[in-house]
Design goal:
single chain, 384 residues, alpha+beta, four-stranded antiparallel sheet, disordered N terminus
Length: 384
């Protein structure tokens, strides 16, 4: 079992997991995950989930997070409740006393733990993924509202049905304003040294009018290997729905391809199975996909740059003693996303920063940031 960042064994959610477990023991966690503090624990024999699951999962949102993606639904739990029986192999969910929701824990391994990076899907998993895409587009978004799956934004802020151009424009504006302008303010010198500006987002936004309209559908928006679980029977499950939204179904394909990093041949295979699945489920869902996919992929590459630069800075800025040990690998990952978005960020005639330049940029940012903090602390201690 993979364990994520520690958040204190005395947390309220950890204590609640112990209270709900079979004997108060065997609580595992916090599990890996950015958005939630999550624990798994063995179920009492009398629990309604115990006939199908050995363990349950209890989650609570992590407070004070920087959100790098536009959110849609107020409650992942209510969304999953509404999807029971409509989408195969998603976590079963029940409500217990105190308004707490438990998810059945899928015993198995994440797809990334089972595969060599960059390897394609098995025939069985490809078929199951295609069925999953088809099931998503078959769900009428109006049904979710009827089942009291509330959305965060007000109705007058919703994108009009089928307006794929406006949908992408909203996503780009979120990255431009919420991530780069607001969250990115403390890292402005770092972005500058890496040669990253919001101009790339402005350029992409000017191209959104090119997009063709497709009927909106439910999207998962985070389909990567760590959110795909292979159970003990070899079947593929989809977990972690906190980024789900209503929008252009092609965006789900673009996000999946970007996050999975398939070889070209496998990428083409997944595109074909997606087209077949969504067109069979809801004709028109793949309209114009070949022309529009490159723009959506370009946005995902640029979005990853803004997200990864800030997340890496947060990681490196948390511990003055150990950050240099993780810097080389962290900088390598940042250099990869910079190189992937090279054309969008730097144009056809310039290159992304090298690995050495990325390391230098973070060292300079870290030194400047820590220097400012040290100066402030000295002033405070002196009472001036």
């Amino acid at each position: 079992m993979t364990v994520g960042r520690a958040s204190g064994t005395g947390s309220d959610i950890r204590r609640r997991a112990g209270e709900l477990s079979r004997d108060g023991q065997g609580v595992t966690g916090p599990l890996n995950g950015y958005h939630h503090e999550t624990y798994a624990f063995p179920l009492p024999a009398t629990h309604e989930l115990s006939a199908r699951f050995e363990r349950a999962k209890l989650r609570a949102p992590r407070p004070g997070l920087l959100w790098f993606d536009r959110r849609c639904f107020a409650s992942e739990d209510l969304l999953l409740t509404a999807l029971q029986g409509r989408v195969d192999r998603i976590p079963e969910i029940v409500r217990v006393d105190g308004g707490v929701y438990l998810q059945g824990f899928i015993e198995g391994r994440t797809l990334d733990a089972r595969q060599v990076p960059g390897r394609g899907l098995s025939r069985r998993h490809a078929d199951q993924l295609g069925r999953f895409f088809g099931q998503l587009v078959s769900i009428d978004p109006k049904e979710l509202a009827e089942r009291e799956v509330t959305r965060i934004c007000a109705p007058d802020d919703w994108t009009a049905e089928g307006d794929s151009a406006a949908f992408l424009d909203r996503l780009i504006r979120f990255t431009e304003e919420q991530v780069h302008r607001d969250h990115g303010a403390p890292y402005r010198t770092l972005f500058d040294e890496l040669g990253v500006s919001a101009d790339a987002l402005v350029g992409l936004r000017k191209r959104t009018a090119e997009l063709r309209g497709r009927p909106f559908a439910l999207l998962h928006c985070d389909l990567h290997r760590k959110n795909l679980i292979v159970d003990r029977d070899g079947d593929l499950w989809v977990i972690d729905w906190e980024l789900a939204m209503i929008g252009d179904p092609l965006y789900d394909l673009a996000t999946h391809l970007h996050l999975m990093g398939y070889p070209k041949q496998e990428e083409a295979r997944v595109e074909e199975l997606w087209v077949t699945a969504v067109e069979e489920a809801r004709p028109g869902s793949a309209y114009g996909w070949e022309e529009d996919l490159p723009l959506l992929l370009a946005y995902k590459r640029v979005q990853s740059v803004f997200t990864d630069v800030i997340r890496t800075a947060l990681l490196l800025g948390s511990d003055a003693e150990s950050n240099w040990r993780v810097l080389p690998r962290a900088a390598w990952q940042v250099q990869r996303v910079l190189a992937a978005a090279e054309r969008e960020l730097y144009g056809a005639d310039a290159a992304a920063p090298s690995m050495r330049q990325v390391v230098t940029a973070y060292r300079n940012w870290f030194r400047t940031t820590r220097g400012g903090e040290a100066e402030t602390a000295a002033v405070t201690r002196s009472g001036t």
